[in-house]
Every structure is written in C-alpha cells, then in structure tokens.
Specification:
The chain is mainly alpha-helical and about 70 residues long. It has three helices and no strands. The termini are far apart.
Length: about 70
C-alpha cells in the first residue's frame, strides 16, 4: 500500500506516572483528562514534529467507550 506510518507514544505520561499524580483509575473518574494525557497530547506532539501536508487523520472509539455512538 505504500503507507508512510509513524508510531507516536506518550513518553511523559506513563500509566505509573498518571496514577502517581492523579490517583488510581483516572480513566474512570475523569475520562476527558485521561484522553487528553494519553491520546490528545501525544497526537498533537507527533503532528507538530511531522508537520504533515496535506493532513489525513484516522481516529476511532469502540462502541462501549461513548454514549453518543
């Protein structure tokens, strides 16, 4: 398919650091903050580093992750 894929990981917020700073089960108490730390910030950093043009982005949620799906 000739895809140019890049894997982006969150190097600043490991599961252990999230728990140490925000307590256990942040994903259950504040899903928005958890998503920001583990998904939004790494994606933004990756996009800033790559500076893609044009931009094509795929993202998804499982049916059980939201009530609006």
């Amino acid at each position: 398919m000739g895809l140019n894929l890049h894997i982006v990981n969150n190097l600043h917020w490991s599961a252990a650091r999230i728990e140490a700073v925000h307590g256990e089960a942040l994903w259950e108490r504040d899903h928005v903050l958890y998503g920001k730390l583990t998904k939004v910030e790494p994606m933004a950093a990756g996009l800033n580093a790559l500076d893609p043009s044009p931009l094509c982005l795929f993202s998804g949620l499982r049916a059980g992750q939201t009530n609006t799906r």
